[in-house]
Amino acid sequence: MKKDLPENKVTDVAMAVALENESAESRVWNVYLLNLKDQPLETVLINSKGYGKHNGKDVKTSVLRHIVGEVGANMFAKIEAIDEQVFGLTNEYWLSFYQNGVIYDKKFIFLPESIIDDNFVKLPLIGKVGVMIK
Q1: What CATH number should be reported for the domain holding residue 80?
Q2: In contact, 34 and 124? CB cutoff 8 Å
């Protein structure tokens, strides 16, 4: 049954954790969806959650559901704020959207300790620095 479904590959779409601003006391971070396509994404839904181990115990964050609606061609949408305290967990964003009447979905997974300065890139469309998964 599953093998009979078409394989709708998601391309030219990215999730990014962007550094918004920084002070001596703290850093402010947000998660963005980047549509690098020349066509809009329609009916965009994103589930986000964190999970892993902290101090030897299993930890899970709440599952958050975000209804974004439409993200225009070569545009971006802010999804949520993210706290540095969860960077030690696996942070998962499950995206689903329609394009030309066809549904697509993809999981973007930021592994523990992957959101670090060494992995920063200049984020397209947003003009900030952060970590991006395409």
Answers
A1: 2.60.40.10
A2: yes
